């Protein structure tokens, strides 16, 4: 399937553009050990991310994708502060762009396609990551998980982008690796592309029924047809 009317592309970050789970897992593990609790693994964190840092920490404390309803709010707050500290302290040195991300984004940017980041990651970390990996210049807007009152799977950010850039829903494409990305796109009635290589709670992205499923980021160039 290919689209010939896309005027704007919104991208998730973690698991879509950036393999960031090693740094996230490292910070979560150090947080748990700091609190005298059992550490967490990369494999565990891979299935827990996607809903923002608060949820990740809640799942780490609960050691489950389902957060313990009896979890102490003060402990949760302390753990989140520790996580932010360790994540920033780590310098994101273990994170890396997925194959062909930079060259594909550069080609779309060169062709004049406006693009934005819509991530549930805390916004304080996002600009530095984009700059560190040399892709910040490609995005006209960068929306983090705390930029607006609502985050994915709510469509708030996508609606905001449509209104700001005067884009109709059928002219926007949301690209992501998680059901939250696909649910947000469906709620905004825009097109969606799901990537199979990211983090989706251990479930195939195809189960969320995006319009298109791709195994490699570079396939985006085959899906979105740019004007002459």
Automatic annotation (TrEMBL):
<feature type="binding site">
    <location>
        <position position="177"/>
    </location>
    <ligand>
        <name>Mg(2+)</name>
    </ligand>
</feature>
<comment type="pathway">
    <text>Organic acid metabolism; glycolate biosynthesis; glycolate from 2-phosphoglycolate: step 1/1.</text>
</comment>
<feature type="binding site">
    <location>
        <position position="12"/>
    </location>
    <ligand>
        <name>Mg(2+)</name>
    </ligand>
</feature>
<dbReference type="InterPro" id="IPR041492">
    <property type="entry name" value="HAD_2"/>
</dbReference>
<keyword id="KW-0119">Carbohydrate metabolism</keyword>
<dbReference type="InterPro" id="IPR050155">
    <property type="entry name" value="HAD-like_hydrolase_sf"/>
</dbReference>
<dbReference type="Pfam" id="PF13419">
    <property type="entry name" value="HAD_2"/>
</dbReference>
<feature type="binding site">
    <location>
        <position position="14"/>
    </location>
    <ligand>
        <name>Mg(2+)</name>
    </ligand>
</feature>
<protein>
    <recommendedName>
        <fullName>Phosphoglycolate phosphatase</fullName>
        <ecNumber>3.1.3.18</ecNumber>
    </recommendedName>
</protein>
<dbReference type="InterPro" id="IPR023214">
    <property type="entry name" value="HAD_sf"/>
</dbReference>
<keyword id="KW-0479">Metal-binding</keyword>
<dbReference type="InterPro" id="IPR036412">
    <property type="entry name" value="HAD-like_sf"/>
</dbReference>
<keyword id="KW-0378">Hydrolase</keyword>
<dbReference type="InterPro" id="IPR037512">
    <property type="entry name" value="PGPase_prok"/>
</dbReference>
<keyword id="KW-0460">Magnesium</keyword>
<comment type="function">
    <text>Specifically catalyzes the dephosphorylation of 2-phosphoglycolate. Is involved in the dissimilation of the intracellular 2-phosphoglycolate formed during the DNA repair of 3'-phosphoglycolate ends, a major class of DNA lesions induced by oxidative stress.</text>
</comment>
<comment type="similarity">
    <text>Belongs to the HAD-like hydrolase superfamily. CbbY/CbbZ/Gph/YieH family.</text>
</comment>
<dbReference type="InterPro" id="IPR023198">
    <property type="entry name" value="PGP-like_dom2"/>
</dbReference>
<dbReference type="InterPro" id="IPR006439">
    <property type="entry name" value="HAD-SF_hydro_IA"/>
</dbReference>
<feature type="active site" description="Nucleophile">
    <location>
        <position position="12"/>
    </location>
</feature>
């Amino acid at each position: 399937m290919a689209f010939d009317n896309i005027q704007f592309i919104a991208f998730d970050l973690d698991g879509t553009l950036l393999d960031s789970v090693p740094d996230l897992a490292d910070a979560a593990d150090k947080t748990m050990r700091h609190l005298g609790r059992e550490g967490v693994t990369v494999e565990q964190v891979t299935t827990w991310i996607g809903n923002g840092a608060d949820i990740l920490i809640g799942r780490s404390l609960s050691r489950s994708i389902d957060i313990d309803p009896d979890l102490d709010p003060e402990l949760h707050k302390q753990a989140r502060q520790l996580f932010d500290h360790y994540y920033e302290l780590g310098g994101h040195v273990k994170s890396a762009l997925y194959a062909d991300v930079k060259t594909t984004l550069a080609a779309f940017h060169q062709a004049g396609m406006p693009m934005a980041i819509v991530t549930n990651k805390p916004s304080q970390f996002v600009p530095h990551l984009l700059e560190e990996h040399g892709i910040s210049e490609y995005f006209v807007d960068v929306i983090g998980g705390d930029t607006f009152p609502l985050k994915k799977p709510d469509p708030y950010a996508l609606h905001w982008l449509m209104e700001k850039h005067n884009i109709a829903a059928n002219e926007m494409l949301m690209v992501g690796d998680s059901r939250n990305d696909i649910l947000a796109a469906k709620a905004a009635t825009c097109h969606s592309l799901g990537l199979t290589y990211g983090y989706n709670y251990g479930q195939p992205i195809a189960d969320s029924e995006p319009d298109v499923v791709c195994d490699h980021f570079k396939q985006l160039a085959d899906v979105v047809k740019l004007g002459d």
